C-alpha cells in the first residue's frame, strides 16, 4: 500500500513540474519577461505627520487657604467660570475675629495714651523715655490690628485670576491647613495640545510652526502653534513632549479631550519616492532598481535615503517619468527584453 502511495505522490510532482514548465514558457515566450511597473513620485520635501494628542489647560493653579480652619461655605462648582477676585470659599473666622477685637482694644488704649501724653511732651514735662514708650506702644498696636485683619481675610479664598474651576478637593465641614489644595483653577482661554514625538522626528519641529487640530468630541477643527518642545525624552516610550497652543475663547475645548494633530514639516533631503518592491541588491550589497526603457530592462544604481509614508526615498539617475519595474526583477539583467502587463 505504501508503495502505491509513493507512486501517486511522484506522479503528482511530475505533473506539477510539467505544468510549471508549460506556464514558464508562456510567461517568458521568446525570452521576453512579463513585468509590472510604477511611476516615481517627485519628493517635495513637505512631510505631513499625524499624531494623537490630549488637551491640557494652559495653566493649572492649586488654590489653598492661608490659615487653619473648618470650611463653612463653598460658593463654586466644578466647571464653573470665575472672575479674578471672586470669593470662592470660606473657613470659620470666629477665632480670627476675636483676636482682631483684642488687638483693636489694645490700639484704642494706645491711641488714648498717645493723646494724653502728647501735650506733656510738647510742654516738656514728659520724660523722653516715657514718650518713646508711648510711640512704640501705638506702633505695635497698629501692627497687631493689621496682622489680625489679615487673619480674618485669610479665612476667605479668592480667585487670583479668571478661569474655570477644575476640581474641588474639599467640602463644607472639612478641616483645612495651609498649602493643602482646596480648589483647582484652570486657565483655558487658550489650551495646549500635548503630543508625543519620536526621537527620529523631533528635529522637524520648530517653535512657531503651525499644526491642524481635529477634536472629534466636539466636531471642531482649529489651527495651533508649537509653543514648547521637550528636551528630555520619556524613559519608557522614548518620545519627546511637544505642546501646541490653541485659542479657546469660546471655552468649548476642555482639558482631557483627545485630538488628531497634523503637522507639516519641510525636509531638506531630495530624491524620488518609490515602492520598496522596486529595490534590489547585488552581491556586493549595492542597491539598484530596474526601469523599463524601449522594451528592455535597464539597471540603475540608487541610494536609499529614508522611509516616508510607506515609500522609499531614493537618490540616483532616475528619469522623472521612468517606468520603474516592481515585479519580475528576479529574472532580469541589464538589457533583458520585457513586456509590461497590468
Overview of the molecule:
The chain has 342 residues and is of the alpha+beta class. It has four domains: 31-45 and 270-340, conserved putative lor/sdh protein from methanococcus maripaludis s2 fold; 50-59 and 187-266, Efflux pump adaptor protein, beta barrel domain (Elongation Factor Tu (Ef-tu), domain 3), CATH 2.40.30; 65-92 and 155-181, RNA polymerase II/Efflux pump adaptor protein, barrel-sandwich hybrid domain (OB fold (Dihydrolipoamide Acetyltransferase, E2P), Beta Barrel), CATH 2.40.50; 97-149, Helix Hairpins (Orthogonal Bundle), CATH 1.10.287. It contains three helices and 21 strands. The protein has helices spanning 2-27, 94-123, 128-153, and strands spanning 33-38, 41-42, 46-63, 69-74, 81-82, 87-91, 156-158, 163-168, 175-176, 183-198, 210-215, 220-229, 239-247, 258-266, 272-274, 280-281, 287-293, 296-308, 311-316, 323-327, 338-340. Strands 1, 2, 15, 16, 17, 18, 19, 20 and 21 form a nine-stranded mixed beta sheet that branches. A six-stranded antiparallel β-barrel has the order 3-10-13-12-11-14. Strands 7-6-4-9 form a four-stranded antiparallel beta sheet, with no helix packed on it. Strand 18 (296-308) and strand 19 form a beta hairpin. Helix 2 runs antiparallel to helix 3 (128-153). It is rod-shaped, with a radius of gyration of 41 Å. The two termini are 48 Å apart. The model is unreliable at 1-27 (pLDDT under 50).
Amino acid at each position: 500500500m505504501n508503495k502505491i502511495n509513493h507512486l501517486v505522490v511522484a506522479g503528482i510532482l511530475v505533473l506539477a513540474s510539467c505544468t510549471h514548465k508549460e506556464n514558464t514558457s508562456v510567461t517568458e515566450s521568446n525570452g521576453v519577461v512579463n513585468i509590472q511597473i510604477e511611476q516615481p513620485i517627485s519628493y517635495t520635501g513637505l512631510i505631513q505627520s499625524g499624531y494623537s494628542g490630549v488637551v491640557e489647560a494652559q495653566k493649572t493653579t492649586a488654590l489653598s487657604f492661608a490659615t487653619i480652619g473648618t470650611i463653612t461655605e463653598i460658593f463654586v462648582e466644578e466647571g464653573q467660570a470665575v472672575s479674578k477676585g471672586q470669593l470662592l470659599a470660606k473657613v470659620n473666622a470666629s477665632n480670627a475675629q476675636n483676636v482682631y477685637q483684642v488687638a483693636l482694644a489694645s490700639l484704642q488704649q494706645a491711641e488714648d495714651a498717645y493723646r494724653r501724653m502728647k501735650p506733656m511732651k510738647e510742654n516738656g514735662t514728659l520724660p523722653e523715655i516715657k514718650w518713646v514708650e508711648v510711640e512704640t506702644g501705638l506702633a505695635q498696636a497698629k501692627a497687631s490690628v493689621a496682622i489680625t485683619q489679615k487673619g480674618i481675610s485669610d479665612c476667605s479664598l479668592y480667585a487670583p485670576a479668571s478661569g474655570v474651576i477644575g476640581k474641588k478637593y474639599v467640602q463644607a465641614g472639612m478641616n483645612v491647613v495651609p498649602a493643602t489644595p482646596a480648589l483647582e483653577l484652570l486657565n483655558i482661554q487658550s489650551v495646549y495640545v500635548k503630543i508625543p514625538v519620536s526621537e527620529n522626528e523631533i528635529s522637524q519641529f520648530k517653535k512657531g510652526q503651525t499644526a491642524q487640530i481635529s477634536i472629534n468630541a466636539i466636531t471642531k477643527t482649529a489651527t495651533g502653534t508649537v509653543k514648547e518642545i521637550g528636551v528630555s525624552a520619556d524613559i519608557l516610550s522614548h518620545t519627546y513632549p511637544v505642546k501646541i497652543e490653541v485659542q479657546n475663547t469660546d471655552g468649548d475645548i476642555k482639558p482631557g479631550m483627545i485630538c488628531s494633530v497634523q503637522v507639516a514639516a519641510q525636509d531638506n533631503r531630495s530624491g524620488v519616492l518609490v515602492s520598496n518592491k522596486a529595490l534590489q541588491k547585488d552581491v556586493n550589497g549595492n542597491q539598484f532598481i530596474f526601469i523599463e526603457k524601449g522594451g528592455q530592462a535597464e539597471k540603475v544604481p540608487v541610494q536609499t535615503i529614508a522611509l516616508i509614508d510607506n515609500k522609499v526615498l531614493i537618490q540616483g539617475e532616475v528619469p522623472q517619468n521612468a517606468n520603474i519595474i516592481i515585479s519580475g526583477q528576479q529574472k532580469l539583467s541589464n538589457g533583458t527584453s520585457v513586456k509590461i502587463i497590468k
